[in-house]
Amino acid sequence: MNSLVLQRVFAGLAIVGQIIVSLRRSLLLLPLVLLLAACNNDRPRVDMAKVTPDAAGTQVKDTRPPLHIAVAAMISPETTRQYYEELLRLVADRMGRRAVFSQRRTYAEVNTMVMNKEVDAAFVCAGPYVQGHEQFGMEILAVPVVHGVKVYHSYIIANRNSSYTSLNDLRGKKFAFTDPDSNTGSMVPTYMLAKRGETPDSFFGDHFFSNSHDNSIKAVANGQADGAAVDSLIWEFMNTIDPNVTSRTRIIEKSSPYGIPPIVVHPAMDPATKKKLKQVLLTLHEHKESAELLAKLQIDRFAEGDDKAYDTVREMSRWLEKEKGR
């Protein structure tokens, strides 16, 4: 066998060897890839205090019982985690527990978690509270006071550079709702259209659900939607933390006031735990660290809630159901 043939044989063997090594590596990595894919499909559920530093500064396992708190997707998961994690940790610490934070993609999923007692408390929207109260007696634990009031609105927004001045101008346009169960992001604009003898399908050229209020704001700012209905609290909050986005939108219509999104619990929650958690929430503003966090969230303080504040949401829901049945 001459030298040229030998060179070709050795080169071929080298290529085969490389292929075998690559296949072995791929097989070794396959379980990891599948695991990561599975993790990415999970809804966020984060134990925020599994370890804590001891007096010597070393890490020790936190053996305190968990306090499970869910936050509905009123704002996107990244923004929620960024601004709520520390607050929830402080609440849990004052309860003598460790915080476990959960978020779900839809409002209905969070309601189900409360109903099934999978969480101790949850931040929910006004519409889902009314549904949960009717379905299984969901209770208000506390409500935020924002700029001195316990109400909020639905803002109909459009792009800053558009000529639209009211919801009427969005006929035939592309519109962003947030969640099917959202009060300000779905029910209110649907009600506003129904009062005009219209439905989303008959009025808009196209419409979609963005899954959160900040996503809807961004969709309008970026021209992915001509208009949207969003929670006034979220728009004002975004206007503080990310004015580059809100400045590219305009508020073209504002709804009547509705009862503010509450913090809720299951009616069968242990009375002593419920009382202690409520007391912690109602006194957060009295402590410097938590007061500063509340200020970042544009919350003055937490206060007692009143189920009657949500009667206007109930009336609107009943009216829409009646119209749908005609």
UniProtKB/TrEMBL annotation:
Belongs to the phosphate/phosphite/phosphonate binding protein family. It holds the Pfam family Phosphonate-bd. It comes from Geobacter hydrogenophilus. It comes from the Bacteria. This is Phosphonate ABC transporter substrate-binding protein. Keywords: Signal. GO terms for biological process: transmembrane transport. One of its GO terms (cellular component) is ATP-binding cassette (ABC) transporter complex. Coiled coil: none annotated.
